[in-house]
């Protein structure tokens, strides 16, 4: 079996993708966000390898140009659609657009509903994920939504189709791959590739070098700066983080929490008052250059219930921040707890989270050592490697077609 795999890998390596025409399907072509940044950086890398790319999207939000790149934006709907209708709209529009495209060698969907997809990159969990990772009431509600709402049922339908019909699947973590294969009963030998994201946002220099910060100087900082990046209150675990902050404050710890990606809406303001931490939490809203925030923080905390990988912690690690992440997050599989990050075994336990946060506040030597190792670990993740894994998936599909 090992010899067969070795021979197959060697055969695939001889297949060139240079000059191939790839139709890349994504909702928005943009260098902002998670999925969007992943797709944009991947397209840039593919173009550098001599691949011709036609991006098919709802809206083009990028000013990037290249001789071998064409961007076809079919436009947003004329009226606001429900989530279920939005999935169906994307399916119809990608079908219409693909029918007009000529000489396409492969169609690669970034989890966008489509009638044709030889390769699919999955960025989001299945709709049933929260039924395994949420609180008891969240599990019950999620199961009900999965059974009775058009939004959840439509997403499940399209995800099942994407997963079952793709010639090769790409996942951003093994955690996500295992979930999809289990959820949709995919055969163990159904081909897949793990393509982790790169650690850079595209705004900073690709190689962030230099010595890690001297954390002895943090004694002169009045409050230890923690960072949270995300748009979900419960899904990203901000509710658990608020509870942990209440505990930290009761312990007498001096800290502050900066929240990026969310505005201070009434419901969040009420939560701060409820937990008596309104003097410790700052809402920064949308930040176009998040690297600026990374440079003023010591640790990033993401106790997520749902996180296929976790690009923000990885990007923060590149700047020397120590990540505190949940075990159910994809990024946990590439970290070693206590070495280059801290992993929450129970992401719903505010006391465990508070304990891990306090460790970093109380132990500057641990903080400094973990910061250095986190920065080094993040450098292992590049968009070049993401493209290498993706091209391997392309080679597998081309090889399969050659042997039909």
Mean pLDDT: 91
Count of discrete domains: 2
Shape: globular
Point out poorly predicted stretches: 1-8, 205-212
Count of extended strands: 15
Helix content: 40-55%
Which homologous superfamily in CATH is the superfamily of the largest domain?
Glycogen Phosphorylase B
Distance, first to last CA: 22 Å
What radius of gyration results from the CA coordinates? 22 Å
Helix/strand-derived class? alpha/beta
Largest sheet: 7 strands, parallel
CATH fold topology of the largest domain = Rossmann fold
* CATH level-1 class of the largest domain: Alpha Beta
What is the count of helical runs? 14
Q: Which oligomeric state applies? A: single chain
Tell me the strand order in the biggest sheet: 5-3-1-6-7-8-9
> So, CATH architecture of the largest domain?
3-Layer(aba) Sandwich
Strand content: 15-25%
H/E order of the elements?
Answer: HEEHEEEHEEHHHEHEEHEHEHEHEEHHH
Folded structure, characterized:
This protein has 404 residues and is an alpha/beta fold. It has 2 domains: 14-198 and 382-402, Rossmann fold; 215-378, Rossmann fold. Helices cover 42% and strands 16% of the residues. The protein contains 14 helices and 15 strands. A 7-stranded parallel β-sheet has the order 5-3-1-6-7-8-9, sandwiched between helices. It has a 6-stranded parallel β-sheet with strand order 12-11-10-13-14-15, sandwiched between helices. β11 (255-260), α9 and β12 form a beta-alpha-beta unit. α2 packs across α14, α3 (83-100) runs parallel beside α6 and α11 (311-318) packs across α13. The model is unreliable at 1-8 and 205-212 (pLDDT under 50).
């Amino acid at each position: 079996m090992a010899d067969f795999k070795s021979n197959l890998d060697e055969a695939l390596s001889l297949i060139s993708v240079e000059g191939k025409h790839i139709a890349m399907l994504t909702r928005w072509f943009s260098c902002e966000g998670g999925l969007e940044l992943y797709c944009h950086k991947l397209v840039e890398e593919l173009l550098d390898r001599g691949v011709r790319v036609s991006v098919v999207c709802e809206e083009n939000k990028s000013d990037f140009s290249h001789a071998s790149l064409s961007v076809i934006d079919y436009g947003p709907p004329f009226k606001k659609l429900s989530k279920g209708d939005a999935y169906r709209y994307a399916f119809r529009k990608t079908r219409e657009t693909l029918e007009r495209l000529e000489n396409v060698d492969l169609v690669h969907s970034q989890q966008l509903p489509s009638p044709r997809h030889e390769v699919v990159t999955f960025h989001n969990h299945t709709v049933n994920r929260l039924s395994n990772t949420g609180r008891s009431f969240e599990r019950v509600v999620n199961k009900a939504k999965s059974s009775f709402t058009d939004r959840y049922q439509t997403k499940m339908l399209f995800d099942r189709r994407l997963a079952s019909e793709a010639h090769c699947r790409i996942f951003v973590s093994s955690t996500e791959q295992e979930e999809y294969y289990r959820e949709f009963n995919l055969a163990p030998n159904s081909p897949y590739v793990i393509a982790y994201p790169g650690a850079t946002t595209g705004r900073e220099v690709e190689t962030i070098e230099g010595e890690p910060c001297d954390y002895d100087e943090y004694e002169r900082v009045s409050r230890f700066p923690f960072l949270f990046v995300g748009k979900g209150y419960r899904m990203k675990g901000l509710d658990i983080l608020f509870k942990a902050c209440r505990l930290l404050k009761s312990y007498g710890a001096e800290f502050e929490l900066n929240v990026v990606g969310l505005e201070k809406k009434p419901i969040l303001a009420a939560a701060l008052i409820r937990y008596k931490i309104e003097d410790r939490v700052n809402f920064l809203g949308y930040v176009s250059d998040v690297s600026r925030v990374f440079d003023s923080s010591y640790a990033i905390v993401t106790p997520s219930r749902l996180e296929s990988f976790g690009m923000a912690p990885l990007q923060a690690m590149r700047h020397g921040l120590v990540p505190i992440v949940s075990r159910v997050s994809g990024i946990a599989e590439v970290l070693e707890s206590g070495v280059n990050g801290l992993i929450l075994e129970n992401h719903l336990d505010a006391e465990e989270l508070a304990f891990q946060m306090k460790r970093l506040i109380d132990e500057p030597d641990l903080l400094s050592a973990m910061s250095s190792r986190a920065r080094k670990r993040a450098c292992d993740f590049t968009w070049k490697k993401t493209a290498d894994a993706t091209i391997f998936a392309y080679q597998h599909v081309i090889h399969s077609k050659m042997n039909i």
